[in-house]
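REQUEST FORM: STRUCTURE PREDICTION
Request ID: SP-0412
Submitted by: Lab K.M.
Chain count: 1
Length (residues): 228
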Amino acid sequence: MVSLRKVQYKQWWYNLLGPNLAKDRPLLSYFIDDRYLILTHKSPLMLLKPVALTSSFVGAFIVGMYFLTFEQARFFFPDNPVPVTLQTFGILLMGSIYGLRLSFISISFYLILGISGVPIFQGHNGGIEYAMGVTGGYLIGFFLASLLNSFLSTRGFNRGLSIWSMLASNMVIYLPALIWLSIGDFSWPEEGKLYQAILPFLLGDFIKLIGASIVISFLWRLAGRSKD
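STATUS: Completed
RESULT:
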C-alpha cells in the first residue's frame, strides 16, 4: 500500500513541474522515480516553502543547469564569423522536458549565477557588466524562450508537434535581442546593419531546432512505454 506521505510528495513534484493534466503532463513526469524524501517534516528547513526538496528535483535541476551551459560547445560554418553554440539546443530541450515552474527555477538560477559573476555565460564570461552588454537581449530571450516552450509543451505542442513550440520559442530569442541592440549604445552591430545580430544564427538555429525536435520525439516514444 502506498503511504500517504509518498502520495503527497509525488503530487508536490507534479505540481512543481506544472499542470498534471492527462496528456498535458510535462515529459519529465513520465520518467521520475519514487525515491523522494531528502528532508523530513522534522527538519528546520521544512519552514521553507514549497514543502520539501527531493532527490528527483535536485537531479533534474542539475541536468537543467547542464543544458544551459551547452554554449561551451561551439563550431563555425564556412564563411560565418559567428560561432554556433549548443545553448539554444539545451534551452529547447529543457523547455520541452520540464514543466513551466522547473524551467523557471533553472533558467532564473542560471541567470542569477552569471550576473553575480560566475563565468557561465558565453566564452566563460560573467558579471553584471557583461550581462548589460550586447548579449543582454539574448539572455532575456533565453529566459522568455524557455518559459514559452515549457508552457506550449504542456498545452498540447509536444510529441510530434514539439517543433512548432520550439520554432516559436526561437523567434522569442530574436525579438528581445533586436530591441536591446536597437536602443543600446553598442559597437556591434554596425549602424543600419541590425540584421547582423540575427542572420548569421539562422542556419545553426534551424539545425539545432530540428535536432532538439527529434530528441523530444524519441523521448515521448520512451514515455509511451513507461507507466503513467
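NOTES: The longest strand covers residues 74-75.
Reviewed by: T.R.
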